[in-house]
Amino acid sequence: MPSAAHPLLEVEDLCVEFRTRRGTSRAVDGLSYTLREGETLALLGESGSGKSVAAQAVMGLLDTPPAHIVRGSARLHGDDLLAMPPERHRAVRGTRLAMIFQDALTALNPVLTVGEQLAEMYRVHRGTGRKAALERAVALMDRVRIPAATRRVHDYPHEFSGGMRQRVMIAMALALDPEVVIADEPTTALDVTVQAQIMRLLRELQSETRMGLLLITHDLGVVAETADRITVMYAGRTVETAPAEDLYTRPGHPYTRGLLDSVPRLDRLGKPLVPIAGAPPLPTAVPRGCAFHPRCPRAEQRCAGHAPPFLTLSPAGHRSACHFAEEVHRAPVG
Ligand code: SF4
């Protein structure tokens, strides 16, 4: 993806806190990224890393309270979503900005046919008549390669397989030609073959529409197939960001290295998998200094006392928040 492509979504210094009776926890701490036209950016991290909260903040889906956006901006073509009145943010959602959820069965209405649900998008947002809206729903189902769309438009969500339901979710997200689609773990509930089909479909649709795709995932396999750029999150912070190939071949952060060493890869056949020791911190107890230091095999004394700077490792925008980023980046992989 050429970096000259037009920026669609620019998130800068996003901080989200949860304030409860047990205290305040910062779920997202200073997240910044730019998503360009036709680009897939993956936000990658373990559960609790803040990636889904960050996506919900941009979509305007956080419950406030307990969530509070403490600072930051999220500009969609220059319009700051976080500064918009809620009703304007709602109008943007679904039209210019859409989301594909993880669990299609929960996200779809069980008592309406998928055709009724798809047609409703056109009736509510475009004022299309009932018959024309249903025809557009059929066309949309064709577009996401649902076989026999003319007949299946009258089926209910429970009559579809998991993979076909996820296609319906994708169809709903794309109905109004959004500029940006956020896909939150879109294939987690599916088996591996169907996962690959869904990711291939998203790539094909993206090349037709030039939409920006923000992919929220914990799955390095999904990321390898799909992403142009990857931002790795840990304990609410960005620890590394890079073009996908650079991140896989020359990671510059020990956490990213740990993630790569802990999953099976064709280029590491015969090598043992090495899990990352320990568990991610609770949002209420993020360690001082580098948040990864209690689990980091490379940690030294200063890691516990001083937060690492975000160092630039290449002109292509490879950056890492580690005191020893340059050495880690130089070390061979595997
Ligand atoms: Fe590990 Fe220290 Fe780098 Fe953090 S700053 S990732 S603890 S080496």
Care to give the gist of this entry?
The protein is an alpha/beta fold.
Structural features, described:
The protein is an alpha/beta fold and 334 residues long. The chain has helices at residues 51-59, 86-92, 104-107, 114-126, 130-143, 149-152, 162-174, 192-209, 220-226, 244-249, 254-261, 301-305, 325-330, and strands at residues 7-20, 23-36, 40-44, 67-76, 79-80, 97-100, 180-184, 212-217, 229-234, 237-243, 310-314, 318-321. The protein has a domain at 2-234: P-loop containing nucleotide triphosphate hydrolases (Rossmann fold, 3-Layer(aba) Sandwich), CATH 3.40.50. The protein has 13 helices and twelve strands. The chain has an eight-stranded mixed beta sheet, sandwiched between helices. The mean pLDDT is 90. The structure holds iron/sulfur cluster. Residues 253-254, 290, 292-293, 296, 298-299, 303, 308, 322-324 line the site of iron/sulfur cluster (SF4).
